[in-house]
Amino acid sequence: FATPAQAQYSESSAWITPFAGAYFGGSFDPVTNTYSVNKLDVGTAFTFGARLGYKFNPSIGLVFEYAHADPTLTVECSLATAGTWCGREIDLSSNIYEGTFNFYFGSTPEMQGYIAIGAGAASMGATGTAPDSTQVSGSSTQFSTVFGLGGTKMLNEKVGIVLDGRYRWVNVDGQDSYY
């Protein structure tokens, strides 16, 4: 069995791709236990965005991405009366801006896998209603790194399907933190 020679692959290409998917939240323990808060639960939400990419050769490409999601945050406390935010849901807004180098592998240009490694910025905002009915909000933008693994299946010369998973690390508080 022989694989196609590298010269048979397209040498370079540019694309813009809108996407939709899911933002999977999770639970984490706060760094300090102020007001008896023992867990913060970030919910799963619909996510959308776009990628702009350029493939330098059959093996390496550069991709810029914007992604947005609106999950909720639930504050859980060991004592329900311990703090004013216990049991409340807070609306979150997540915006990701990143660039990755994609390293492609596979024997045909119609179906290829890739590994994505990069960095960018993660912006997280929150809005909630305090017990006195006033709106409280805040936001923070932090440096992030990303590792991704995915695959592309071309249906024809211009249309393809991409399955992609990303792990992002964001330094939120100067300590080891991620999401």
Low-confidence stretches: 1-9
* Beta strand %: over 45%
Spell the H/E element sequence: EEEEEEEEEE
Principal-axis shape equals elongated
> Averaged pLDDT, please?
82
Instruction: Indicate the multimeric state.
Output: single chain
Largest sheet: 10 strands, antiparallel
Radius of gyration: 21 Å
Task: State the helicity in percent bands.
Answer: under 10%
Number of strands: 10
Q: Quickly give the structural class.
A: mainly beta
Overview of the structural elements:
The structure is a single chain. With 179 residues, this protein is mainly β. β2 and β3 form a beta hairpin.
List keywords for this structure.
179 residues, 10-stranded antiparallel sheet, 65% strand, disordered N terminus
Please give the structural blueprint.
Elements (H helix, E strand, L loop, with lengths): L12 E11 L2 E3 L8 E6 L2 E11 L4 E10 L2 E6 L11 E20 L2 E19 L5 E20 L5 E11 L9
Antiparallel strand pairs: 1-4, 2-3, 3-6, 4-5, 5-7, 6-7, 7-8, 8-9, 9-10
Describe, in short, the structure shown.
The chain is mainly beta.
